[in-house]
Amino acid sequence: MSLCLSLALVVSSFVPGLEEATDQPILLRPARLIDGVDSELRTGWVVLVRGAKIEAVGPAHAVVVPENTRTIDLPDTTLLPGLIDAHTHVLLHPYNETLWDDQVLKEPLALRVSRANNHLRAILDSGFTTIRDLGTEGAGYADVGLKQAVEQKIIPGPRMIVTTRAIVATGSYAPRGFAPELKIPQGAEEADGVDLPRVVRDQIGRGADWVKIYADQWDPVTGGKATFSIAELRTVVETATALGCPVVAHAMTREGMRRAAEAGVRTIEHGDQGDAEIFALMKQKDVALCPTLAAAEAMELYKGYKIGQTPEPAGLTLKRKSFKAAMDAGVRIVNGSDMGVFAHGTGARELELMVEYGMPAAKALQAATSEAAKALGLETRTGSIRPGLQADLIAVEGDPVQQISAIRKIRLVLKQGQLVLDRGASHKKSE
Hints:
It is built from 13 helices and 20 strands.
């Protein structure tokens, strides 16, 4: 028996509800349905799944149900598209467990990959069927192998878009603070100037779906500085685009965001110092924002912040301000949490914070479904409940439009028509 087959059998035997997608049609009958595209809450609608795709969706009386269909009744639930998190790090775990520097410098690669297997399962079980993983943070190209393992069904996990090592300007990243004569392994790949095209091509050649570049470095005292010039950033974008690869930029400073947007990146991550002018530029250039609110909150919690008991830290107040400015400017906001800084499987916190910071719950759900799919170029595959799209579907208890925290109460998960989580749904077979 092959190693891959052995692993697959082990996973199947220990994961409750894990089933292969089959040609037998499945009819999902929820109490409510949100299609991911608009805010309308539909009642009395059903979804017919055949194989890996959605075959039909609509009012129950209008959907023709084939013979031998397996019906899954989902009373008191809302059916949604599988959620998308456009900013994760599956090879990291919470910094209050192990400091980032120690994860990069002291944890063996095999340990990090083994831990990531569990992270992927936790993410999938929490309703996220697609992630964009934005850098291995010192773990090389391990994300490429994890993606392949998921695709080959060796391990369960969400659909993965990967960026491998990410690119930073020389001397701008970490771990740092060591004696200057020492060469310390970095959490991303250093490159500058004329070397940038080679590094971009190399990362894409090794399996990167997107190229991630750090447009600035952050310093808690100085507030950070932009690193790459606009010309360098444009070189990265032009080189990657020629190979069919979009570019995502880490940018927390105003100037880093401006340069990244001018250079033509597809999304900007964090955006802490964004203001009306910068977000107007992003709107003009059709650059989306992944605000990573949950990671910012987690970092403050690790420092001793207690929600509702201690004053809100200045960094979170800045996040609220920039998030509102982005909404006011009409920037496409995409759910991206920076999961890995905090626990995998708790990505719903990002949606809760978006609502807390002023976004309507229906819009937050779109940010994690159709809007995220558009930003990632996946709208013809996933992100909404439409015939012909992949059957990435979740059912949650309650109504997340009325109470966004309902998104945590996962009853059922399908990924590409495969039932990967089933918590008490009622099944029956039509004659």
